[in-house]
Structure formats: C-alpha cells, structure tokens
C-alpha cells in the first residue's frame, strides 16, 4: 500500500521543486492579491456577510489557479515519478502538497483582505474572532483542494485543459463551498465551539471523501 | 416486445388518466396542483435510476481488462446515452417543478436547496459531456469520462441527498416541512403515485436502450460504408 518513507521523500522533493521554481507559487499568491485589491477598489465597506462572500469568491478562484499547476509535470518527470512511487502514493503526496500550497495562498488572501477591507466585526461583538475563523477557512480550503487535486489530475490528461478544468471543478466544489461558507459565517458571528465542532467535522469529511474516491479511481486514470 | 415494456406503457397510460381524473384531497393553496405529484416526482426517480445505470456501465467499463475492445466501448456508449436521457428527465422534472412552484410559492425560481441541487446536477453532467467532447482519442475519452462519471455521481448524491437537509427549504420533505407521504398522500393517491413512478422508470429505461441500439446501428452503418 502506501509507504510512509516514499511519501515523505516525495513531498520533500515536491517542496524543493516548488521553492526553486519561485514563479510557480508566486503566481497564485499574486492572483489572490490582485483579486483582493480589485474587490477593495470596487466594493467599499461591505457588510460582514458581503465581506465573507467576496472572500470566498477570491479563495475559489485562487485555489483553482493553485491546483491547476499541481499535476502539470512534464512527461519525463512523470516517468521518473512513476518509477519512484505507486499511484496511491502519488495521489496522496500530490493532495498534501496541493493542500499546503492552497492553504498558503488562502492565508495570504485572507490577511490581505483584512488589511485592505478591514476585519468585519458583526453587531454585538467587540472583536473579530480570528482563531475560529481561520480554522473554518482552512478546513474549507483543504476540502476544496482535495476535489481540485482530483480534477487537476483528470484534466492533466487532456491536451487543452485550462478551460475544461474550471468547468469540471466548479460544480463539484459547490457542496464543499456551501458547507465552508456556512461554517465560516458561524465563526464570524462568534458562535461557541460547541456549534462549530460539528461543522468542522463535516468540512473534514468533505475533504476526505474526494481523496478516498480518488484513491479508488486514480489507477484507472493513470493507466495509459 | 418484452413484458416490462408493455407494463411501462400500461402504468404510464394509467397514471396519465388516473392522475388527471381521480379524486385528490382538497388542500389549501395546493388545490388541484397536487396532481403534479404524479408527474413531477417520477421524473426525479427516473433520472436517479438512469444515472445509476450510467454509473454501473462506467464501473463495468473501468473494471474490464481490455479497455478498448468493442464490447467495452459499447459500455461507454451506454454510460453516455443513459446520462443523456437522464438529463432530459431532469429538465422535465425541472420544468414541471417550476410550474408548480409558480402556482404555490409564487415564483418560478427560488434559492432553494432542491433547486440548487438540480442546477448542480445539470452542470455536473454538462461538464461530463464537455469532457467527452474535448478528447479526440475515443478510448481515452471513454476512460476519462468513466472516471469523472463515478466521481461526479458520488459528489452529486452527497449534494442532493445530504446538504438540503442542513438548510431551510420550502420544498416538502426538507427543513422541517413534512413530505406529502406523512399526512396527505392518502391511499387513493398512493395507488396512482407508485404505478406512475414505476411506469416512468421503465419508459425511461426503454428510451435509453432504444437510443443505444440506434447508436450501435449508426456505428455499424458507418463501419460498413467507410471502411
């Protein structure tokens, strides 16, 4: 099955490559920053719920940008990777690196949003619930990245894949997105942890489901 | 003609007559629109059964040892055509639902979880057809489409089955609203509703198998004339 040592090696290898090709990770970060600034220019002083919706729109498109690159290795790199690792290890390794990359981009996006548009404090609250909000956002983004990892793997097999990947992913992202939006709204409104825990659990379940499905289907995708 | 096809015809014919002519409970606001239950709900049952059929063909396609064999390419064609016919039923269910919503809720479209589920289902399968169209090699197209079909079906079931129960809805059976079955689907209505569901499922299946046969004949014709 999955060998932990190979998996760790693979992730480290991905990480090194990612760091070396600095334009690789810089592009989605810049993309998130640009959308954030655009929103800041177009929508002055949104109310908390609008702020949250705009944030999620930014996060969806930046995650799409990030995940799109995750399976874009050259054919010779794939031959090497296939000798190094088994399909399941490749998928899990790629899912972990995609999740980390997406998280990095998302956190940058959220911080820039807070910097430019301000941190919204709903009525009756004295401050922005930063910790619970960030946890809700992070679980949601991990859920999105595990679906996006699979569609990226699928569309890496197509020759003209940029538009197709967005079309394949967006409807599949909706369940995760709605749960994440609801959870982060509850966090923003300062609900206690006892209400947030079940929502975090459903966010996590929605990030595990696509990976489990991917593990079943990945061998068929890779047979060629 | 096989018996199940005759049964399908008979049941749909019966439900068309009985659905329009038999007694129904008199309820405020619903009034006579309750008869739409016999036409709107069976469309969704048929869609789900046909999509499940498409899923089974995709799974059988993937599990085969010889992906490109002609038997296996037939399974791919079956998966595609069953999804197509299912989408026709989804559109019919959507239109009958919209008419009903206009009469009872006051608008053709509301931000309701059931409607969002329908929209997502239509988008997911539209993407499935786009995916099929964007690959030239038929075997590769079939393989990628089968993988996406399995993935998308599970995500769709999660979406339309579980999520609407988490949010408020005007639709019967959701968000604290009782389903019709709980109190006003009396025995008279059951005697029309269940035959309608079974009849439409059989008719939908029949349409799909007919379309598969037409596609096979066209393919044979093409092979005979051009190769």
DSSP strand tally of chain B: 0
The largest sheet of chain B, given as strand count, sense and whether it forms a barrel, is: none
**Assembly level:** heterodimer
Please count the beta strands of chain A (DSSP E, at least 2 residues each): 0
Mean pLDDT of chain A: 86
* Large-scale geometry of chain B: globular
Tally of helical segments of chain B: 7
Q: Main sheet of chain A? A: none
The whole-angstrom Rg of chain B is 20 Å
Query: What structural class is derived from the secondary structure elements of chain B?
Result: mainly alpha
Shape of chain A: globular
Low-confidence segments of chain B: none
Number of domains of chain B: 1
Task: Report, as a whole number of angstroms, the end-to-end distance of chain A.
Answer: 21 Å
Give the radius of gyration of chain A: 18 Å
Listing every helix as H and every strand as E from the N terminus to the C terminus, the arrangement of chain B reads: HHHHHHH
> Which runs of chain A of at least 5 residues are low in confidence (pLDDT < 50)?
none
Percent helix of chain B, as a range, is over 70%
What is this entry, summarized?
The complex is a heterodimer of chains A (224) and B (227). Chain A is mainly α.
Description:
The complex is a heterodimer of chains A (224) and B (227). With 224 residues, chain A is mainly α. Chain A is built from 8 helices and no strands. Chain A has helices at residues 4-20, 22-42, 48-68, 75-84, 87-117, 130-155, 162-188, 193-222. The longest helix of chain A is centred in the middle third of the chain and has 31 residues, at 87-117. Chain B is mainly α. In chain B, helix 2 (37-63) packs antiparallel against helix 3. Chain B is built from 7 helices and no strands. The A-B interface holds A 147, 150, 154, 157-160, 164, 167-168, 170-172, 174-175, 178-179, 182, 206, 209-210, 213-214, 216-217, 220-221, 223-224 and B 62, 67, 116, 120, 123-124, 126-127, 130-131, 134-136, 140, 143-144, 146-148, 150-152, 154-155, 158-159, 163, 166-167.
């Amino acid at each position: 099955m999955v060998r932990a040592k190979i998996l760790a090696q693979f992730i480290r290898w991905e990480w090194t490559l990612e760091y070396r090709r600095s334009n690789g990770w810089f592009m989605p970060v810049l993309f998130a920053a640009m959308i954030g600034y655009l929103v800041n220019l177009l929508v002055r002083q949104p109310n908390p719920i609008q702020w949250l919706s705009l944030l999620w729109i930014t996060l969806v498109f930046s995650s799409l940008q990030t995940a799109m690159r995750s399976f874009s290795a050259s054919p010779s790199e794939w031959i090497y990777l296939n000798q190094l690792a088994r399909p399941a290890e490749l998928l899990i390794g790629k899912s972990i690196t995609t999740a980390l990359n997406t998280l990095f981009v998302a956190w940058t996006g959220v911080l820039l949003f807070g910097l430019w548009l301000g941190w919204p404090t709903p009525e009756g609250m004295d401050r922005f619930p930063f910790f619970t909000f960030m946890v809700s956002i992070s679980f949601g983004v991990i859920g999105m990245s595990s679906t996006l990892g699979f569609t990226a793997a699928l569309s890496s097999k197509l020759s003209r894949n940029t538009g197709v990947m967005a079309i394949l992913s967006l409807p599949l992202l909706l369940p995760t997105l709605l749960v994440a939006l609801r959870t982060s709204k509850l966090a923003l409104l300062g609900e206690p942890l006892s209400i947030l825990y079940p929502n975090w659990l459903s966010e996590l379940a929605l990030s595990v489901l696509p990976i489990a499905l991917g593990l079943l289907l990945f061998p068929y995708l890779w047979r060629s | 003609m096989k018996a199940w096809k005759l049964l399908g015809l008979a049941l749909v014919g019966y439900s068309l007559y009985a659905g329009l002519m038999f007694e129904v409970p008199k309820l405020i606001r619903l009034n006579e629109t309750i008869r739409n239950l016999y036409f709107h709900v069976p469309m969704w049952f048929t869609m789900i059964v046909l999509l499940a059929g498409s899923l089974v063909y995709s799974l059988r396609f993937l599990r085969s040892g010889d992906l490109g064999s002609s038997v296996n390419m037939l399974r791919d064609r079956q998966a595609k055509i069953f999804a197509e016919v299912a989408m026709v039923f989804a559109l019919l269910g959507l239109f009958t639902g919209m008419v009903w919503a206009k009469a009872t809720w006051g608008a053709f479209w509301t931000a309701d979880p059931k409607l969002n589920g329908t929209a997502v289902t239509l988008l997911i399968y539209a993407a499935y057809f786009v995916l099929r169209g964007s690959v030239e090699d038929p075997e590769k197209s079939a393989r990628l489409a089968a993988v996406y079909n399995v993935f998308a079906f599970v995500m769709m079931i999660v979406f339309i089955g579980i999520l609407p129960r988490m949010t408020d809805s005007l639709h019967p059976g959701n968000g604290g609203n009782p389903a019709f079955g709980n109190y006003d689907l009396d025995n008279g209505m059951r005697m029309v509703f269940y035959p309608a569901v079974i009849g439409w499922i059989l008719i939908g299946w029949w349409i799909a198998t007919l379309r598969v046969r037409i596609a096979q004949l066209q393919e044979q014709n093409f092979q005979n004339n051009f190769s």
